[in-house]
Write a structure and sequence with these properties.
Strand order of the largest sheet: 2-6-5-4-7
Radius of gyration: 18 Å
Number of strands: 9
CATH class: Alpha Beta
Number of helices: 3
Strand content: 35-45%
CATH superfamily: Cyclic phosphodiesterase
CATH topology: Cyclic Phosphodiesterase, Chain: A
Number of domains: 1
Length: 192
């Protein structure tokens, strides 16, 4: 007899305020006007977040331990501010797969938070990530094909500041209409 462990697809992220999501949506629309329809799957602005760590299939039985680790992590970090940066893509402009807006401002608190998060996940069974962290906000994923060579990447983005007050453990359920996100735990950072 096979024993199935209940799992969810999960990630840890920083949520964004409505004005930042609105600016990211506007940026995506400005790009979309320059290309054929359906060439890019645009992320709904309400679903955009700053992913700190994708966990993948996660045992429901581990959620309590994850929440406890996030609470302990948050208790050691003051809230901080970031701001929107420039437009970019992975892996490169010639063959982009992911279109994103970067993070600007004083990023040291973000890097420290990310590094300590990764260290806290190791005892729970998540290996250290094999790639360096690149803070970004995904606004679109390129379907098969090339983007127009004339695409203007120099779209002005308002460098909106936003406060980081908490980190969230989020469940992601994939549906034909796109992902559905449910916050499973919120860990509040210390206030200055």
């Amino acid at each position: 007899m096979t024993h199935m462990t209940a799992t969810i697809r999960a990630f840890i992220a920083i949520e964004l305020p409505p004005d930042v999501k609105q600016e990211l949506g506007r940026t995506g629309q400005s790009l979309a006007l320059q290309m054929p329809p359906r060439l890019v799957r645009w992320v709904q602005p309400g679903n955009i977040h700053l992913t700190l760590r994708f966990l993948g299939d996660t045992a429901v039985a581990q959620l309590s331990s994850l929440g406890q680790q996030l609470d302990e992590l948050a208790a050691h970090h003051l809230s901080f501010s970031l701001q929107l940066g420039r437009l970019g893509c992975f892996p490169n402009v010639k063959r982009p797969r992911v279109i994103w807006v970067g993070i600007a401002g004083a990023k040291a608190p973000l890097w420290t938070l990310k590094q300590e998060l990764d260290e806290r996940l190791i005892p729970l069974g998540w290996a250290a990530e094999d790639k360096s962290f690149s803070a970004h906000l995904t606004i679109g994923r390129v379907n098969d094909g090339r983007l127009p060579a004339t695409l203007n990447w120099d779209i002005p983005i308002s460098p909106l500041p936003f406060a980081v007050h908490a980190i969230h453990l989020i469940e992601s359920r994939l549906t034909p209409k796109g992902p559905l996100y449910t916050t499973r735990h919120t860990a509040v950072l210390r206030q200055p």
